[in-house]
Structure formats: structure tokens, C-alpha cells
Specification:
coiled coil; 1 helix; rod-shaped
Length: 49
């Protein structure tokens, strides 16, 4: 019984962790995209800032 409860808690934590990991990856990718866009805009403005 206690093992089943622990297993359910672990599964929930693993699911939550995997969702957070997915969100972190999406945020990282969005950040990299924005960095590239920022570099392009700086280049178009004629220099580094």
C-alpha cells in the first residue's frame, strides 16, 4: 500500500519534471532565436552595441 502511494507520487513528480524540462528546452530555443534576431538587428543598424 505505502509502496503504491510512493509510486504514484514518484510518477507525478516525474511527469512534472518532464513537463518542466520540456518548457526549459522551449525557453532555451526561444532565447537562442531572439539572440540571433538581436544580432541581425544590430548588424542592420550598422554595428555592435
Amino acid at each position: 500500500m505505502a509502496t503504491e502511494v510512493n509510486l504514484k507520487k514518484l510518477r507525478r513528480k516525474l511527469r512534472d519534471f518532464n513537463l518542466l524540462k520540456k518548457q526549459a528546452l522551449q525557453l532555451y530555443e526561444e532565447n537562442e532565436k531572439l539572440k540571433l534576431e538581436n544580432q541581425l538587428l544590430k548588424y542592420r543598424l550598422g554595428g555592435e552595441f
